[in-house]
Amino acid sequence: MTRLQNSLFAFLLCIILLFTACQSAPASSGGADKPQSIASEPSAAETATLTARIVDISGNLLLLAGKDDGVYRCARPEDAPNDLIPGMMVDVTYGGYIKTIYPSEPDNVQKITVRENETDGRCALYLSVLQELFNTDETLQSDTEYISVDLTKTPLTKGEIQAIAWRFGELTERCPLTFTFKELQDEGYLETDELLWEDGCLFKITEKNDENGTLTFDAEKWRAGDGASYFLDCTAKQNKDGTYADFEIGAFAAA
């Protein structure tokens, strides 16, 4: 390559390098470039709403049966209505997270709103019936480990039945179940050819009539063919607010 060619090659290389540098230089608008932020504004805290019936109130804790058939327990927020009672249907606003324990616990409960004209006091009524039945002829379940609550002959939801059974087990210090007599056999708690539940008692409530604001039902506690107690032709009148007055036992029987 001649000297002239070398000079021409060097000149062209300088032109190319200069052009490339200009193309890659950042755009400027009258001063030093300001870095662009990629951070976005934080979004508002997520919330969710749980619709549920109050099954029981113990101190500051509410036991709830969700419309989704779940069983929940939460603390009453400071600004909750002062007149909360079992049987009310409520909307619980919480932080969007539910702790996976049993009963489940909505996190960061912020508000409880009562749904008007949706109160039904059956849960509280039947829980009181079960307690009265348990305290009658206590020797029948003196050495038992389990209680099974059969409320399939009532209009209660699955969640309401499970919540009642859980609270009943808590109050009686027994392991709660929600099996019928047939299901106890199918699950191996009862021997098919023996009318005896050695380590448990079956509690059953059967609704018979619900007219003119008066509920009629039977309740029974069974452990064996010759070990049972019965509340027959019980009645309870519904108050204007949807709750029930104390029930009355029409007749008592034992086997």
Summed up:
The chain has four helices and 13 strands. It is of the alpha+beta class. Strand 2 and strand 3 form a beta hairpin.
Structure description:
The chain has helices spanning 3-24, 122-134, 158-172, 181-186, and strands at residues 48-58, 61-66, 71-75, 89-94, 98-99, 105-106, 111-114, 146-153, 175-177, 200-211, 214-224, 227-237, 251-254. It is α+β, with helices and mostly antiparallel strands and 255 residues long. The chain folds into two domains: 48-114, OB fold (Dihydrolipoamide Acetyltransferase, E2P) (Beta Barrel); 122-254, no CATH class. A six-stranded mixed sheet has the order 9-8-10-11-12-13, covered by helices on one side. A five-stranded antiparallel sheet has the order 3-2-1-4-7, covered by helices on one side. α2 (122-134) packs parallel to α3.
Instruction: Tell me the number of strands.
Output: 13
Q: In percent terms, what proportion of residues is strand?
A: 25-35%
What is the helix/strand order? HEEEEEEEHEHEHEEEE
- Which whole number gives the mean pLDDT? 85
First-last Cα distance: 122 Å
Number of domains: 2
Highlighted features:
single chain; 2 domains; six-stranded mixed sheet; five-stranded antiparallel sheet; disordered N terminus
Q: How is the topology of this model organized?
A:
Layout: H1 3-24, E1 48-58, E2 61-66, E3 71-75, E4 89-94, E5 98-99, E6 105-106, E7 111-114, H2 122-134, E8 146-153, H3 158-172, E9 175-177, H4 181-186, E10 200-211, E11 214-224, E12 227-237, E13 251-254
Parallel strand pairs: 8-9, 8-10
Antiparallel strand pairs: 1-2, 1-4, 2-3, 4-7, 5-6, 10-11, 11-12, 12-13
Helix pairs in contact: 2-3
